[in-house]
Amino acid sequence: KLFFTDYGNAAKVERCDMDGMNRTWIVDSKIEQPTALALDLINKYVYWLDIYLESVEVVDYQGRRRQTITKGRQIRHLCGLAVFENYLYTINSDDFSILRINRYNGTDAQALARLDDAKEIRVYQKRTHAAVRSHACEADPYGMPGGCSHVCLLSTSHKARTCRCRTGFILGSDGRSCK
């Protein structure tokens, strides 16, 4: 799945399949300007910052069990969001400090370090990534991902895929080759 935020005409947090199909709103009320998103891949939770409502909130992948983690004026100055173990990590755009916040109750907010002009944060640790299993976009015997001549996108599951073409090409009737 692909998770993303939108604060155009109607602010929301959404998810869809990697090929863009099955687009679903998972949060569409009491949300104004969601600017950062982080996933807990293990427990299947979505965290986001809303800088207009000055809050950090969480829901499960279906949009249920919504909770506010923390709220207050300091939120409007945050950008970027990552989750690891018991904490959320974010950047304070006023002084570019990395903040660590307890993801269960919003306490233990602590500045860890400062980085010049930081706008985004990611945690790279083996435990934060799900194991990769066999999937429909693996290279075929000719080296083509999922048998697609240009781009292979996972679809409704790891066993299904959709082929797409680069700009200027159209997908052939076989659903795999680009012309």
TrEMBL record:
InterPro entries: 6-blade_b-propeller_TolB-like, Cueball_EGF_LRP_Nidogen, LDLR_classB_rpt. GO terms for biological process: canonical Wnt signaling pathway. It comes from Zosterops hypoxanthus. PANTHER family: EGF-LIKE DOMAIN-CONTAINING PROTEIN, VITELLOGENIN RECEPTOR-LIKE PROTEIN-RELATED-RELATED. GO terms for molecular function: Wnt receptor activity; Wnt-protein binding. LDL-receptor class B repeats lie at residues 1-43. Pfam families: Ldl_recept_b. One of its GO terms (cellular component) is plasma membrane. This is LRP1B protein. The gene is Lrp1b_2. Gene3D superfamilies: TolB, C-terminal domain.
